[in-house]
Write a structure and sequence with these properties.
Pfam families: FAD_binding_3. By secondary structure, the protein is an alpha+beta fold. It has a domain of 83 residues: 3-Layer(aba) Sandwich (Glutaredoxin), CATH 3.40.30. The strands form 4 sheets. Strands 1, 2, 8, 9, 10, 11, 17 and 18 form an 8-stranded mixed beta sheet that branches. An 8-stranded mixed beta sheet has the order 6-5-13-14-15-12-16-19, sandwiched between helices. It starts with a strand and ends in a 12-residue tail after the last helix.
Length: 508
């Protein structure tokens, strides 16, 4: 029998793999998702997404479902070892520039169940659990061979794929197959992660509490109506097993639960997690790509670990779909690593910096924090920086036209703003290129954009989009299917020339 062939095999059915498969399916690309687990992986991991990543969930069609399982976070409180407030950065309860809360707390297994249910609605995606990928091989320019074993029955199988996406986590089989290695960015800490359920009202401020203590750094956050997460840095020689007994665990929780009896707390999970900072030396080998934890690992101090994987999926899916159906040239795939790797590296470095500032320095560090943080918290500009959910712009690539010495909107996310007809930008663009202009788009430009699969959007004076263009010193922008600005400028004809397959002479 001949080996079956599919356009894309996704290895790993975590949030990154499910997001990539769902986005590809929306473009009509058939995907086979292989995962070693029969269902959702239960261990505690990510608990935070910002509004940029929430916007990706909305593209998947699960915005309302995610809102039902998530909990808006009201900011950040920094505490000293004696639980005294050093600084507090409060965030409003409303939505951000993309139409969603700027900080969202959630339980990852609940998110994964939501994403699995959603992807099963697609006729273009086959999800196969209890399947261990044992080999990924590509010879020459042809398709990639993926070998796998059924973990229940032991049967072996193979499939050929035009492309393979390695979304299989920190111990990635796909990464090993392409000979990529993880480069250590010199950060490693062991932490105890505790998830608790209770109907009791702990009466705590509804934001993240970070205890800045070199001896026992800790984090507390509410992640749902009756769900709470604590993280405590482990001492040398300690393990999670030391805290399975509630009698030993409860003293760590007491600063937040002293009014709540121990018997009212249900310990859902206790696990040890090692926070690392690592980055794969390369993210692609011909037809094979790495995404999510297979490509990067970050400490959790700015809550960008899981979000980075979803950003990878959103960046790559539309490019891969275009390369498969011939609407985009093959070389657009070169932009994936060129754009995503520096972005991930920058956020990892920021997370390391915050982690070091909060957890190291001994007594001298504690004294410095007690002196400096209250002063910094009273600086409005710093508060805005701490609470701003906008991540850095993407670097220059074939799909990000950024001048080297001039500030530009290129590489940044275009706000998912409400338009004149009441819809948000993403509802109108629907995964297509868009020409967004501060003045009405002339019929000739509109016709050409539409003829090539794009859409023209007018942002009249007084709207959020118009103000954003003006502040960015642009009259119009070309927005990619993932919401990123490809190019900004003042002349529509020049901008339209950057849309795929557009001939500037058509606009003369």
């Amino acid at each position: 029998m001949s080996t079956p062939r599919v356009p894309v095999v996704v290895v790993g059915a975590g949030p990154t793999g499910l997001t990539a498969a769902t986005l590809l399916a929306q473009y009509g690309v058939e995907c086979l998702v292989l995962d070693r687990w029969a269902s959702v992986y239960p261990q505690p991991r990510a608990v935070h997404l910002d509004d940029e990543v929430n916007r990706i969930l909305a593209r998947l069609g699960v915005a309302e479902q995610f809102a039902a399982i998530s909990w808006p976070c009201h900011g950040l409180r920094l505490l000293d070892p004696d639980m005294r407030v050093l600084a507090e950065f409060r965030r409003g309860a409303g939505t951000g520039r993309h139409g969603y809360p700027e900080a969202n707390m959630f339980d990852q297994p609940e998110l994964e169940r939501l994403l699995r249910t959603n992807v099963k609605r697609s006729d273009n995606v086959t999800l196969r659990g209890d399947t261990e990928v044992t080999g990924v091989t590509q010879n020459g320019p042809g398709p990639v061979r993926v070998d796998y074993t059924d973990r229940v029955g032991g049967a072996h199988g193979s499939v050929l794929a035009d492309y393979v996406l390695g979304c299989d986590g920190a111990n990635s089989v796909v990464r090993t197959a392409i000979g990529a290695t993880m480069r250590d960015l010199r950060f490693e800490q062991r932490w105890l992660v505790v998830d608790v359920a209770t109907d009791a009202d702990l009466g705590e401020w509804e934001g993240v509490h970070q205890v800045c203590d070199p001896d026992r750094a800790a984090t507390y956050m509410r992640i749902g109506p009756g769900r709470y997460r604590w993280e405590f840095r482990l001492h040398d020689g300690e393990t999670a097993e030391d805290y399975r007994d509630l009698a030993r665990l409860h003293p760590l929780l007491l600063p937040w639960t002293e009014q709540t009896p121990a018997e009212a707390l249900e310990v859902v999970r206790i696990a040890e997690y090692t926070f690392r900072a690592r980055l794969a030396d390369r993210w692609r080998d011909r037809r094979i790509f790495l995404l999510g934890d297979a490509a990067h690992l970050t400490p959790p101090f700015i809550g960008q670990g899981l979000g980075a994987g979803l950003r990878d999926a959103a960046n790559l899916a539309w490019k891969l779909a275009g390369a498969l159906d011939g609407t985009l040239p093959q070389d657009v795939l070169d932009s994936y690593e060129a754009e995503r790797k520096p972005h991930a590296r920058g956020l990892i470095r920021l997370a390391k910096l915050i982690g070091v500032a909060m957890t190291r320095g001994g007594r001298a560090g504690n004294l410095l924090r007690r002196t400096a943080l209250p002063l910094l918290a009273r600086t409005p500009s710093l508060g805005r920086i701490v609470l701003d959910s906008e991540t850095p712009a993407l670097c220059r690539s074939g799909l990000v036209a950024r001048p080297r010495l001039r500030r530009t909107l290129a590489g940044r996310l275009c706000p998912n703003a409400v338009l004149e007809d009441g819809r948000r930008l993403d509802e109108v663009t629907a995964g297509r290129f868009a020409l967004v202009s501060a003045s009405p788009v002339p019929a000739a430009h509109q016709a050409v954009v539409e003829r090539h699969g794009g859409v023209g959007v007018t942002a009249p004076a007084g709207t959020v989009l118009h103000d954003w263009l003006r502040q960015g010193r642009a009259h119009a922008v070309i927005v990619r299917p993932d919401g990123t600005v490809l190019r900004a400028g003042r002349h529509l004809s020049e901008l339209c020339a950057f849309l795929p397959h557009l001939d500037p002479e058509e606009l003369s």
